[in-house]
Amino acid sequence: MTRVFSGIQPSGVPTLGNYLGAIRNWVPMQDTHESIFCVVDLHAITVWQDPKELARQTREMAAALIACGLDPKRCTLFIQSHVHAHTRLAWIFNCVARLGWLNRMTQFKDKAGKDREAASSGLYVYPNLMAADILTYHATMVPVGDDQRQHLELANDIAEKFNHDYGVDFFPRIEPLIQGVAARVMSLRDGTKKMSKSDPSDQSRINLTDDHDAIALKIRRAKTDPEPLPDHVSGLEARPEARNLVGILAAITGTMPENVLREHGGKGFGAFKEVLVEALVGHLTPIQREITRLLDDPAALDAQLRLGADRAEAIAAPICARAEGIVGFLPRR
Ligand code: AQP
């Protein structure tokens, strides 16, 4: 069975972008692939996180993943810092990846912003850790949102260079799996920027935990243009905000944007936004109830994550140890 790996940062509440671009696509994979999913807290601290909040958000993220349909019995679900192979292999990859490769990463440029000198070195080498996350499981398929495509290409470059430099055929090639009409959900305030859990404006995103009123307010305030909706997808060209809202409704109702426009083309945004609010509330309410239920029993949640970490460790540690042997590290006897 193909081994699948993916992760999500506990850097805030999961957004509709995380859900539609990634989490929702992970759920069916549990039945068709050997699936490993991880709350990547090591990645989260590449930008400042309040320690208490990080701990709370890590549990909340794990609860949200289960509430969205990940079943710790059918997949391996764990917290990244609980399995040390990730950081051990990441160090080797820090020494394999070239600075020129990292300099091309657009996520670093976006997140570091204008003051690059002040960014953490962790943020810079983030893609090397991501490569280690995947390759310490010899996973070959990685379901992610479109924003991660460049990092996965880099992971393949690292795997290839490792194999070439040490004359081995050890790390496999990774296939990104970028699925669905909502592979990139955009900010509600700026249709050219992706929706992010750490965007300073809460109005830019729908959080999976937002209640009816919050969703209604954010969607009603979402930036749009003055034109009514077109009848055809070609009419969404150069209208990023309209395209985003149509894409969200299509994804949440399990259809294609052309079908949404067949039904709503010609409407103004006022009426369309009300349809979108109802669809979002209907879809997210059961997930929110389940998150609350799971967080009411943190000991049970932690026990599930501990079992997940044990299972992950059993796969990752031997692969990492073999990589260390290839590099020439003397085993501890
Ligand atoms: N806007 C998005 N549309 C579609 N997919 C998205 N993903 C993130 N944003 C969108 C996908 O969600 C998965 C987990 O992402 P992550 O938490 O590991 O990192 P990220 O891509 O940096 O997500 P955020 O929400 O933007 O977090 P912050 O604000 O902390 O940086 C990935 O598969 C990603 O593609």
From TrEMBL:
<dbReference type="InterPro" id="IPR002305">
    <property type="entry name" value="aa-tRNA-synth_Ic"/>
</dbReference>
<comment type="function">
    <text>Catalyzes the attachment of tryptophan to tRNA(Trp).</text>
</comment>
<dbReference type="InterPro" id="IPR002306">
    <property type="entry name" value="Trp-tRNA-ligase"/>
</dbReference>
<keyword id="KW-0436">Ligase</keyword>
<dbReference type="GO" id="GO:0005524">
    <property type="term" value="F:ATP binding"/>
</dbReference>
<feature type="binding site">
    <location>
        <begin position="194"/>
        <end position="198"/>
    </location>
    <ligand>
        <name>ATP</name>
    </ligand>
</feature>
<comment type="subunit">
    <text>Homodimer.</text>
</comment>
<dbReference type="Pfam" id="PF00579">
    <property type="entry name" value="tRNA-synt_1b"/>
</dbReference>
<keyword id="KW-0067">ATP-binding</keyword>
<dbReference type="GO" id="GO:0006436">
    <property type="term" value="P:tryptophanyl-tRNA aminoacylation"/>
</dbReference>
<keyword id="KW-0648">Protein biosynthesis</keyword>
<feature type="binding site">
    <location>
        <begin position="17"/>
        <end position="18"/>
    </location>
    <ligand>
        <name>ATP</name>
    </ligand>
</feature>
<dbReference type="InterPro" id="IPR050203">
    <property type="entry name" value="Trp-tRNA_synthetase"/>
</dbReference>
<dbReference type="GO" id="GO:0004830">
    <property type="term" value="F:tryptophan-tRNA ligase activity"/>
</dbReference>
<feature type="binding site">
    <location>
        <position position="133"/>
    </location>
    <ligand>
        <name>L-tryptophan</name>
    </ligand>
</feature>
<feature type="short sequence motif" description="'KMSKS' region">
    <location>
        <begin position="194"/>
        <end position="198"/>
    </location>
</feature>
<keyword id="KW-0963">Cytoplasm</keyword>
<dbReference type="InterPro" id="IPR014729">
    <property type="entry name" value="Rossmann-like_a/b/a_fold"/>
</dbReference>
<protein>
    <recommendedName>
        <fullName>Tryptophan--tRNA ligase</fullName>
        <ecNumber>6.1.1.2</ecNumber>
    </recommendedName>
</protein>
<dbReference type="GO" id="GO:0005829">
    <property type="term" value="C:cytosol"/>
</dbReference>
<comment type="similarity">
    <text>Belongs to the class-I aminoacyl-tRNA synthetase family.</text>
</comment>
<keyword id="KW-0030">Aminoacyl-tRNA synthetase</keyword>
<feature type="binding site">
    <location>
        <begin position="145"/>
        <end position="147"/>
    </location>
    <ligand>
        <name>ATP</name>
    </ligand>
</feature>
<dbReference type="InterPro" id="IPR024109">
    <property type="entry name" value="Trp-tRNA-ligase_bac-type"/>
</dbReference>
<dbReference type="InterPro" id="IPR001412">
    <property type="entry name" value="aa-tRNA-synth_I_CS"/>
</dbReference>
<feature type="short sequence motif" description="'HIGH' region">
    <location>
        <begin position="10"/>
        <end position="18"/>
    </location>
</feature>
<feature type="binding site">
    <location>
        <begin position="9"/>
        <end position="11"/>
    </location>
    <ligand>
        <name>ATP</name>
    </ligand>
</feature>
<feature type="binding site">
    <location>
        <position position="185"/>
    </location>
    <ligand>
        <name>ATP</name>
    </ligand>
</feature>
<keyword id="KW-0547">Nucleotide-binding</keyword>
